[in-house]
Amino acid sequence: MSVAESLSAEISRALGRPFRAVAMREAGGGCIHRTLVLEGDGGRWFVKLNSGETLPMFEAERDGLAALAEARAFRVPQPLCCGLIGGQAYLVLEHLDLAPVAGRADAIACGRALAALHRTTGARYGWRRANFIGATPQANTEHDNWARFFAEARLRPQLARAAAHGPTLRKKGESLAEKLPAFFLDCRPPASLLHGDLWHGNAAMCGGLPTVFDPAVYHGDREADLAMTELFGGFPEAFYAAYREAWPLADGYESRKTLYNLYHVLNHLNLFGAGYLRQAERMIDRLLAELRG
């Protein structure tokens, strides 16, 4: 069978009624997976395809989207099914007609939605399963201590992967990881449900509703999501004002923002190469200098 025929069969089984693709086109825009749009008499579906060993990525994405949907703060594409066809992994999602976050009203709606998402909390930091940040495995072993979780499940795995970039980064990074409790002396952040990979490319509007996708969910400090929105820009000031109005930030956010974004910069270093090395080193140096006073 062709890819379209195989996917049609899987979609039919998931729907419990016949679906036959009459058109299939490349969607584009993905840097990890092949993306398709399938159209047929039973609707339109967004499909991700990759080699068979990437099925755990799709299963994690499916579960993350389900967790976000349950929080009822953002609209998310509903996952229909995932599995293997002809040795390829696939994930079928509801197709959404997306529009950019444009204008003050959209920004305010997104800021309020993010605050509402973060009001959904867990008992511990982490999540019930491991997942992925981009193509990188992301451990979510649960902890009662946020600083310990961030050191053990976030910084240290990325520092270990970055060993090929020389001993200096790892040595300084380990020094920082040992000192993480100093950033949280006056606060124990709630274990908020986080999107986990909230750059502007993973947020949009759909039918006037704030919408997110491609998550890397876990329970953690809500500031980690906000920090990433600032790392690559793209969110207007009205977004942040609306968030802070709904849920003000604690003192010390600027320092913690650098700490949380270090995780993503290290991940980019490991995924895309040495172009991110100096940025990571500067961030670690800045954080260590702050601790020295």
UniProtKB/TrEMBL annotation:
Keyword entries, A-Z: Kinase, Transferase
Superkingdom per UniProt: Bacteria
Keyword Glycoprotein: no
Gene Ontology molecular function: kinase activity
Record family assignment: Belongs to the fructosamine kinase family.
The protein's name: Fructosamine kinase family protein
